Amino acid sequence: MRILVISNLYPPNARGGYEIACANVARELSQRGHEVLVLTAYCLESLDNDNETNAGPKVLRILNYYPESASCLKYISNILKSQYFSWKNYRIMKQYILSFLPEIIYVWNITGIGMFTVVYITTKFHNTVIFHLMDYELARNFSLRPEGSKKFMRWFRKVIFLNCHKLFNKIYFIAMSENVKQAFVSSGYNHNRIVRIYHGLSLENYQCKNLDQVFSDKIKFLYCGQIVKEKGLDVLIQALVEVEREIRDFDFKLDIFGKGDSNYLNALRGLIKSLDLQDDIKINDFKTNKEIAKMFHAYDIFVYPTLRNEPFGIAIIEAMAAGLPTIATDIGGVREIITHGETGFLFPKEDFEVLSRIIIQLLRNKELYRKISSNAVDDVKKRFVLNRSVTNIEDFFSECLSSKV
């Protein structure tokens, strides 16, 4: 099968899990004998050499990427090109659609390369276009319900692209969670053209925790992800303070890994200092996915205290794959991953008191800890394996080509 993959970025250019997931799937498809060509952009600021690989599909970094700019005029220009239309990217994509003649056009994250450009050019020149959805951006920018669109986009669609609804109804979609699927259905997308396929991991990258050594030293907590207010790290810190009040000899270490907003980072450091926890809580330099994968087993508990309606939670299934008991906010796609009390724990958004009680419960019950750890590993093996995910994607490709969906 000839597959043209379109993504704003592609490892070693990666800003997050979206691009890395794209590369993992494209590489697996290529290794299964499909002819895969990747069209992407180059962005120096997101370079991550740890994800570089020579194996896999042919990658052409020739699209234009439009980041936010400090200049007001440049900012407006880049927003228009990033979210709506880029003539340069239109011409490039048209050239390769007509020369490569793909059977499938497989679209991933298109923020920054002209979202409407990709929708328009792919549906104009091809019959089988599949978008892989790992966030809500497309639905936010292109709601098919008039009242749900951004005001500018409603005007843009009404005045210039009267057939916008028809274009999106030509596209098939893979949603990474039921939560994402329902968000798009609520925005007017045809539920019959959307299939849910969970994200999968290469389990050989994750070393399982040794359950014979539970809480043998300091209790080691881990968070990895974006360091922004919406991720609720202050809620986690408040919870740990509550645990200290309840358990006198509570000796802990919290490692935070990720990139973030400088203002929030400064506020977080100020909170840590005001609580005199500088020796217990460390905000560390960014680690690549491969580095983090090798670290999970060395920790005791993974906490994901997000305040967002998360599409899914890749970091959660990574922690579970290493047998690391996970506590996460009961919100969005996270609910589809964790079965409370069986494969992990869920707590209400911003409720640090409930979070602290769950931590205490785990610390005082090693058998429960071991049960959660073992169940988490088994659950990941059943539901979140890359090989099985790609097989499901291939099956969906075949159904789309035969127009059975």
Topology, please?
Elements: E1 2-6, H1 17-31, E2 35-41, E3 58-63, H2 72-84, H3 87-100, E4 104-107, H4 115-125, E5 129-133, H5 137-141, H6 151-159, H7 164-168, E6 171-175, H8 178-186, E7 194-196, E8 219-224, H9 233-246, E9 252-257, H10 262-274, E10 281-284, H11 289-295, E11 301-304, H12 314-321, E12 326-329, H13 334-337, E13 345-347, H14 352-364, H15 366-383, H16 386-401
Parallel strand pairs: 1-2, 1-4, 2-3, 4-5, 5-6, 6-7, 8-9, 8-11, 9-10, 11-12, 12-13
Helix pairs in contact: 1-16, 3-4, 9-14
Task: Quickly describe the structure.
By secondary structure, the protein is α/β, with parallel strands linked by helices.
Question: Which descriptors apply to this entry?
Answer:
7-stranded parallel sheet; 6-stranded parallel sheet; Rossmann fold; 2 domains; alpha/beta; 16 helices; 13 strands; 405 residues
Molecular structure report:
The chain has 405 residues and is α/β, with parallel strands linked by helices. It folds into two domains: 216 residues, Rossmann fold (3-Layer(aba) Sandwich), CATH 3.40.50.2000; 181 residues, Glycogen Phosphorylase B (Rossmann fold, 3-Layer(aba) Sandwich). It is 43% helix and 15% strand. It contains 16 helices and 13 strands. The strands form two sheets. The chain has a seven-stranded parallel sheet, with helices on both faces. A six-stranded parallel sheet has the order 10-9-8-11-12-13, sandwiched between helices. About 2% of the residues have low confidence.
